[in-house]
Amino acid sequence: MVQSIDRAFLILRKLAEKPGGISDLSRRVELPTSTVARLLAALEDSDAVERVDDGYEYKLGPRILQMSAQANKAESLLVIARPHMVSLVDQLFENTGLSIPSGYEVQYVEQVNSANPVQIRDWTGTRLPMHVVPSGLVILAHWPKKAVRGFLDRKLERYTPKTVVNKSEIMNRLERIKLDGFCWCMEEFSDGINSIAAPVFAEDGNILGALHIHGPSYRFPEKSMKKTISDLLVNQTKKMSKELMNKK
b vs e for 211-241, b when ≥16 Cβ sit within 10 Å of the residue's Cβ? Predict the structure, then answer.
């Protein structure tokens, strides 16, 4: 299995250089034509490669090109997001993170930590159901209704006694998020952790991800600071979205 994967990646690397037919690729990767033909058939079935117009040569397919585009977009997102995250940490003295959708989950892809001696762990790499964290909820709020229904048709897990799993309540909450431009979650994912998130939009107006701030519930947020926090976060996500829209 591992050998087949290595060989498939070798073929993809050669096709990234230039298209080729079975015999040509067999020579370039130094494998039997029967092996190359079998691997190309499997890659074609998964849209990783496709035939050139004449039908005799292959080139990289839409699945690989889409993955490459997504990777480039994610890299651009991280580069643009970091200064905004640092700014929020400097102003609020709490950890700030970046999240992106991953199927019906939200994935934490970056975090900037504060110098506060008591802080929340780094959640980078973690995937969570969208209904348990504010970054997931703000992404869900800007999805098409059909996609939201698909999410809500599934069994919703309760992480703490405060996790909202009632589907009508979630729908009402999503409408409120669209009006407010942000979402607070108070100990809904984990006891002792409060967090807030606001959406980041792509050039086409679709939701791209979210910035979130989280901290220990005993200090975050201070009641008098709640509006200030949401205003600062929304201001940063708007600036970030504008930068993404202006990026060529």
Answer: bbbbbeeeebbeeeeeeebbebbbebbbebb
Is residue 99 within 8 Å of 136, Cβ to Cβ? yes
C-alpha angle 178-181-184 in degrees, rounded to nearest 5: 100
How far is Cα 171 from Cα 146, in angstroms, rounded to an integer? 12
Which residues, in sequence order, are CB contacts of 152 under 8 Å at separation 6+? Answer: 167, 170, 171
Tell me the pLDDT of the chain (248 aa) as tens digits. 567 788 888 888 888 888 888 998 999 989 999 998 998 888 888 778 888 876 778 888 877 766 655 555 556 688 888 999 999 999 999 999 999 988 889 989 889 998 877 667 777 778 899 999 999 999 999 999 889 999 999 899 999 999 999 999 999 999 999 999 999 999 999 999 999 999 999 877 889 899 999 999 999 999 899 999 999 999 999 999 988 877 65
Tokens representing residue 110 in the block: 């970056």
Give the whole-angstrom CA distance, residue 162 versus residue 193: 11
CA-to-CA dists, residue 186 to 19, 152, 162, 232, angstroms? 54, 21, 8, 19
Structure tokens at 221: 């947020």
**Contact 211/88 with Cβ under 8 angstroms?**
yes
- CA dist., res. 15 & res. 50, Å (int): 10
- Rounded CA-CA distance 89/175 in Å is 28
- The whole-model pTM stands at 0.71
Name residues whose C-beta falls within 8 Å of residue 31's C-beta, 6 or more positions apart in sequence. Answer: 7, 10
